[in-house]
Specification:
Structural class: alpha+beta
Order of helices and strands: EEHEHEE
Strand content: 35-45%
Helix content: 10-25%
Number of helices: 2
Shape: globular
């Protein structure tokens, strides 16, 4: 079994019709997120499942890296999420909702 690794970045989502933001005209969202998983595919699976619980459908990633290949310093907000990974294998906050075609 692989040892868990840390992945972080930003994901793009479609807002599902049962999400309260949908009634406000929001159709898409960017989400800063991190995950602890054995590999990239498992990390995305965990993230997809977690987002689905919040009525968001994972559609893509943006600058989503294995931490060991990240050549930089995570933002303050991302550092907080990374620190929380010991509590739960997927962490996110500050979902940025926006209407389609914005």
């Amino acid at each position: 079994m692989d040892q868990d690794q840390t992945y972080h970045g930003r994901v793009f989502c479609v807002v599902l019709s049962d999400n309260p933001e949908y009634d406000q005209g929001m159709r898409e969202a960017f989400v800063p997120i991190c995950s602890s998983a054995a590999n990239y595919v498992e990390a995305l699976g965990l993230i997809s499942s977690e987002l689905a619980e919040h009525h968001l459908q994972l559609e893509g990633t943006e600058q989503f890296f294995n931490e060991k290949y990240f050549d930089g310093v995570p933002s303050k907000d991302m550092s907080v999420l990374l620190d929380r990974l010991s509590e739960y294998p997927v962490q996110f906050s500050d979902v940025h909702y926006f209407p389609a075609d914005s």
